[in-house]
Structure to design on (917 residues):
């Protein structure tokens, strides 16, 4: 008698299995159940159906004739409700079907996030043709769609609806799109491409609720953002559909547990596809599922075989978006990266090597070599011989490793060196021979490397070839080992190219490392927050410990706490609060600082939120004694008490401090305001000093009293307190916008020249504009960090205390 | 035999940051990288005892907050051949599990 084979689920995996069985001449009576009212179609091709590039008919894999010719009893639209293992019968609403072998191929179900409104009309998932048709119907031009989930499926849904004219917003929980397949750099490029086609992307967005009466109207996020929506597609992930297997008491982990023959805990029952768990692994991509189909077909035909999962590669099926990811791209022990970026073309390639082997690849913008790399990964080929040119793909593989200088020497004069400005090699050589012997001169005369700067290295090579020994490399060294650009270039390019995130800077300026280092990240974080106060959000993890913890770390790992005392003036109540805090937290030392503040030294990290909270309670805020920002304004008692005082230096100092506090600057900024030229506040060795005289206020800048000692230089005289405030804020902003990170004002002024600074603040229009930009930045950054962090004390304590745990 | 202790949720550790686990044998710093890998090393720089948990995390390295020595989180190897002890740690179902071998070491001592 023929074996009776019952299959639950007519998806791609079970379809492939049946093909294999029939092709091998297997003789079974097959009954095929499917909850969807249709047979096997290529689910991967739903995205082209959604975008209108294909029709459903074009993606059908098995039509009615195919099933008929193989004698398959099709039960489409008929759900299986129960498996009777003892009697080997499968039941649907229509009755029972006996089996000798049963294959469960129920696939997966979309994960629905449990938020209010998830059951409203107009909320769909992206799994089958019904979902696709719902999205097609809703994506009329001008309709608003929100896709929750920026993974593979969510983005294909978004692109498909956008192609039909809908206004689409993608909400993604993580920091960058497709984080499981892409690293932040490739995620940034993908987001840029999607935004260019009108899709709005909101990363780090957590959905709080879906709003609407009967039908969906909008989506509300945890951060308060609301997006209008006529349709919401949830594409946040899938989970194996295991309900039938659970009810039948088969062994189920996250998926239905199977062995290498795809056999479940019941020897007569097999499972296949997205519903299975093999060796603790789940499967969602098609390649391993087809491998499973092949193995299960062989098993059913009585052949010996075993399923071994293989590596898989990912491509996004969105027309015009070119990305590829394969293998393992996490950083790890003994792993090295080769990174190639071509900002002009929006290309990013990263190869991950372990020893002699390529183990992963992430590519964006140019994926032509993807399959070649994937092949190297799968075959575990030794790539050490071709490593130098590996990233250039098979075209270069094995070629003679070229000396870069020789390669430049071989270029013809008409070869283009600078793509941005269309400058060829010959023009650069002419300029050099005409006397442009420094990079700056070449830039000034030819514009080569003056825009995006990526070709700086090439231009320098042309100079080295032309000048021979007469060439000395750019005296201004690059920012760090991650880039060839100087700090000044990076600042200029952030502004000119409108780069507004760390991944954007690293991609567009061709960073050579994947995620920067401890030297460039704090600098980039500062440049971005200073240039884009409204758009950029401070990255706490890119800050040094003191700014991250809003206190100064000491050599023993404790911290010092300095509350702000405006202009160095305090009250009895504040002093009492400081004394109480010192007692309560057993502060080992209380010291008066050179900037007229009181420093509590030796505070434990976990006590910081509590001590801040105590100070907040009496109205004291952070003194920012740890910041590359405004530290202190030191004052003398001035005309209010002093018999020599000419103006109210104390009051002016307090006003200045209230204006400037909370601002971040390239390096620390200290001010002094003295009430007369006797200069008791020592204003003339500060970054900015004000000395009051009978006729007004003398403002001087660029003093130093550290490793270098230097008197300030006269900037400008002001006749009113208001004018002092405007000039000082404008000058501070000029410094914020132009200096390189960690350069104090005196070093920066020495570079740009005091004359230039004087001109900027002398012109009333320029000065006012600087002042306005400073105030705009303060609208974001003038907040007390202590108040914010005191609210979450648990974040400051050890995450776990195992001191009382004994060994087992 | 190794025995893993559930110490926290992965999300309690900031990306490119670290949190500290207190033990009788000193603190252990548990790091989370930008791509959600987790590593645990002794929270003490061999140079001058700096708390490595407060350093800037870049790739799978951390830079000591006191004098900028750089350590590879995967091996514990650092600048000038300094070495810090690493501890096995893994993530399961969004929870961070730390190898409790250090407890056994202490009781044996």
């Amino acid at each position: 008698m023929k074996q009776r084979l019952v299959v639950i689920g007519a998806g791609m995996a079970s379809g492939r299995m049946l093909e294999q069985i029939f092709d091998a001449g297997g003789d079974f009576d097959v009954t095929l159940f499917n909850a969807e009212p249709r047979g096997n179609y290529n689910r991967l091709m739903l995205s082209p159906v959604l975008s209108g590039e294909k029709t459903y008919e074009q993606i059908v894999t098995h039509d009615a004739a195919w099933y008929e010719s193989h004698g398959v009893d099709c039960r489409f639209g008929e759900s299986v409700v129960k498996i009777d293992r003892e009697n080997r019968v499968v039941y649907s609403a229509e009755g029972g079907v006996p089996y000798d072998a049963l294959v469960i191929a129920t696939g997966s179900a979309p994960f629905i996030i449990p938020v209010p409104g998830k059951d409203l009309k107009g909320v769909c998932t992206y799994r089958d043709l019904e979902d696709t048709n719902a999205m097609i119907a809703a994506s009329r031009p001008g309709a608003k769609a929100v896709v929750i989930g920026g993974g593979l499926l969510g983005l294909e849904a978004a692109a498909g609806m956008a192609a039909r004219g809908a206004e689409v917003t993608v909400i993604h929980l993580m920091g960058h799109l497709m984080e499981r397949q892409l690293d932040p750099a490739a995620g940034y490029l993908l987001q840029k491409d999607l935004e260019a086609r009108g899709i709005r992307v909101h990363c780090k967005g957590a959905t709080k609720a879906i709003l609407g009466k009967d039908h969906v109207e909008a989506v509300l996020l945890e951060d308060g953002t609301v997006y209008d929506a006529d349709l919401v597609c949830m594409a946040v992930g899938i989970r194996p559909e295991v309900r039938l297997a659970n009810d039948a008491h088969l062994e189920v982990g996250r998926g239905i547990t199977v062995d290498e023959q795809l056999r479940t805990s019941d020897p007569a029952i097999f499972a296949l596809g997205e519903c299975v768990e093999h060796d603790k692994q789940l499967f969602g991509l098609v390649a391993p599922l087809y491998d499973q189909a092949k193995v299960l077909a062989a098993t059913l035909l009585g052949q010996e075989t075993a399923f071994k999962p293989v590596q898989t590669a990912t491509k996004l099926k969105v027309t015009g978006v070119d990305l590829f990811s394969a293998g393992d791209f996490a950083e790890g022990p003994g792993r090295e990266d080769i990174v190639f970026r071509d900002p002009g073309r929006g290309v990013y390639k990263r190869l991950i090597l372990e020893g002699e082997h390529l183990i992963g690849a992430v590519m964006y913008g140019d994926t032509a070599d993807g399959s070649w790399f994937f092949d190297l990964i799968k075959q575990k080929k030794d790539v050490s011989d071709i490593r130098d040119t590996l990233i250039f793909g098979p075209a270069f593989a094995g070629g003679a490793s070229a000396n870069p200088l020789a390669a430049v020497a071989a270029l013809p004069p008409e070869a283009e060196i600078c793509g941005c400005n269309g400058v060829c090699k010959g023009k650069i050589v002419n300029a050099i021979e005409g006397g442009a012997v420094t990079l700056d001169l070449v830039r000034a005369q030819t514009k080569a490397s003056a825009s995006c700067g990526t070709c700086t290295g090439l231009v320098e090579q042309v100079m080295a070839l032309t000048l021979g020994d007469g060439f000395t490399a750019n005296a201004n060294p690059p920012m760090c080992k991650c880039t060839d650009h100087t700090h000044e270039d990076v600042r200029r390019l952030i502004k000119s190219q409108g780069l507004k995130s760390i991944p954007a800077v690293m991609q567009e300026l061709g960073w050579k490392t994947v995620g920067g280092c401890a030297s460039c990240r704090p600098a980039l974080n500062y440049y971005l927050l200073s240039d884009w106060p409204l758009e950029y959000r401070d990255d706490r993890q890119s800050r040094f410990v003191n700014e991250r913890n809003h206190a100064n770390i000491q050599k023993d790992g404790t911290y010092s706490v300095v509350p702000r005392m405006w202009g160095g003036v305090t009250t009895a109540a504040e002093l009492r609060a400081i004394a109480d805090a010192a007692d309560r937290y057993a502060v080992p030392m209380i010291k008066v600082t050179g900037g007229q503040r009181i420093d509590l030294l030796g505070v434990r990290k976990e006590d910081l939120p509590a001590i801040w909270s105590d100070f907040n309670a009496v109205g004291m805020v952070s003194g920012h004694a740890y910041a590359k920002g405004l530290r202190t304004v030191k004052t003398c008692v001035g005309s209010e008490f002093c018999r020599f005082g000419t103006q109210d230096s104390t009051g002016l100092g307090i006003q200045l401090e209230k204006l400037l506090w909370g601002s971040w600057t390239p390096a620390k900024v200290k001010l002094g305001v003295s009430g007369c030229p006797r200069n008791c506040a020592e204003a003339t060795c500060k970054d900015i000093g004000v000395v009051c005289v009978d006729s007004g206020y003398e403002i001087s800048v660029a003093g130093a009293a550290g490793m270098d000692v230097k008197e300030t230089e006269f900037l400008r005289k002001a006749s009113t307190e208001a004018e002092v405030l405007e000039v000082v804020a404008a000058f501070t902003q000029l410094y914020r916008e132009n200096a390189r990170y960690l350069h104090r004002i005196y070093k920066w002024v020495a570079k740009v020249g005091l004359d230039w600074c004087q001109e900027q603040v002398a012109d009333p229009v320029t000065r006012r504009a600087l002042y306005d930009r400073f105030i705009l930045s303060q609208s974001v950054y003038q907040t007390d960090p202590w108040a914010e962090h005191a609210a979450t004390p648990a974040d400051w304590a050890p995450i776990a205390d195992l001191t009382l745990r004994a060994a087992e | 035999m190794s025995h893993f202790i559930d110490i926290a949720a992965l999300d309690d550790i900031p990306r490119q940051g670290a949190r500290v686990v207190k033990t009788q044998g000193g603190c252990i710093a548990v790091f989370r990288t930008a791509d959600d890998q987790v590593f645990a090393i002794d929270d003490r720089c061999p140079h001058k005892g700096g708390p490595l948990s407060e350093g800037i995390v870049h790739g799978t390295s951390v830079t000591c907050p006191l004098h900028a020595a750089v350590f590879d989180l995967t091996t514990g190897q650092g600048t000038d051949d300094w070495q810090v002890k690493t501890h096995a740690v893994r993530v399961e179902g969004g929870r961070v599990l730390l190898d409790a071998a250090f407890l056994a070491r202490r009781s044996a001592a």
Observations:
- Chain A is about 30% helix and 20% strand.
- Residues 545-626 of chain A form a domain with the Sulfite Reductase Hemoprotein; domain 2 fold (CATH 3.90.480.10).
- Residues 398-402 of chain A have pLDDT under 50 and may be disordered.
